[in-house]
UniProtKB/TrEMBL annotation:
It comes from the Eukaryota. GO terms for molecular function: histone binding. One of its GO terms (cellular component) is nucleus. It comes from Chanos chanos (Milkfish). Residues 157-225 have a biased composition (Acidic residues). It is found in: Nucleus. This is Acidic leucine-rich nuclear phosphoprotein 32 family member. GO terms for biological process: regulation of apoptotic process. Belongs to the ANP32 family. Keywords: Leucine-rich repeat, Nucleus, Repeat. Residues 128-146 form the U2A'/phosphoprotein 32 family A C-terminal domain. InterPro entries: AN32 (IPR045081), Leu-rich_rpt (IPR001611), LRR_dom_sf (IPR032675), U2A'_phosphoprotein32A_C (IPR003603). The keyword Transmembrane does not apply. Multifunctional protein that is involved in the regulation of many processes.
């Protein structure tokens, strides 16, 4: 797929001015140049053109708000002075895997005053003596070169900082806990209903027992009365005999 068509698809019915991130990795550039990008992408902050066969960035439009530019795995060997003119506020630039052989090629990047991170992995320039020391001298505004600062401390992953590792998992866990808590909250209600039902059954049983006890007591009273009546009859018979 060529770059123009890819840009059209990436727009997804949006206008260029609505786009802040644009990923064009692995598409085809015509004659090694950027195509289809215009000044209308005025809000663009992140542009990725990895492995698209670029040999030049000369056709890059004016992108004042562009902060991160991915140009790795292309065939760029020079012409970087365009970047200071077209992307004056660039903070991160990745030129890994290009054909950059000497420091003079990256010297124009001095004009990118906001540039904090530069990657030149797998470029021939990294084989030069005192490569890191010389790049930091050439570009004093840099904080990180190939992912490390002057003290060889690794650069923090900005994506990881924005989205801490495991955060989504924790959110999911929290959701599960909330669901469990919700179920637990609902469960006591069911238990209460069962307990109320049990209490009603117990009360019913007690009432039945009371009814049974009452009947037994009446029967005992009847028997007692019959016994007393029989005793009186016997006494009367005895008196008659006398």
């Amino acid at each position: 797929m060529d770059m123009k068509k890819r840009i059209y698809l990436e727009l997804r019915n949006r206008t260029p001015s609505d786009v802040k991130e644009l990923v064009l990795d692995n598409c085809r550039s015509n004659e090694g140049k950027i195509e289809g990008l215009t000044d209308e992408f005025e809000e663009l902050e992140f542009l990725s053109t990895i492995n698209v066969g670029l040999t030049s960035v000369a056709n890059l439009p004016k992108l004042n708000k562009l902060k991160k530019l991915e140009l790795s795995d292309n065939r760029i060997s020079g012409g970087l002075e365009v970047l200071a003119e077209k992307c004056p506020n660039l903070t991160h630039l990745n030129l890994s895997g290009n054909k950059i052989k000497d420091l003079s090629t990256i010297e124009p990047l001095k004009k990118l005053e906001s540039l904090k991170s530069l990657d030149l992995f797998n470029c021939e320039v990294t084989n030069l003596n005192d490569y890191r020391e010389n790049v930091f001298k050439l570009l004093p505004q840099l904080t990180y070169l190939d992912g490390y600062d002057k003290e060889d401390k690794e650069a923090p992953d900005s994506d990881a900082e924005a989205y801490p590792e495991g955060l989504d998992d924790e959110d999911e866990d929290d959701d599960e806990v909330e669901e469990e808590e919700y179920d637990e909250d609902a469960a006591p209600g069911d238990d209460d209903e069962e307990e109320e039902g049990d209490e009603e059954e117990e009360e019913g049983e007690e009432e039945e027992e009371d009814d049974i006890s009452g009947e037994e007591e009446e029967e005992l009273n009847d028997e007692e009365e019959r016994g007393q009546k029989r005793k009186r009859e016997l006494d009367e018979e005895g008196e008659e005999d006398d």
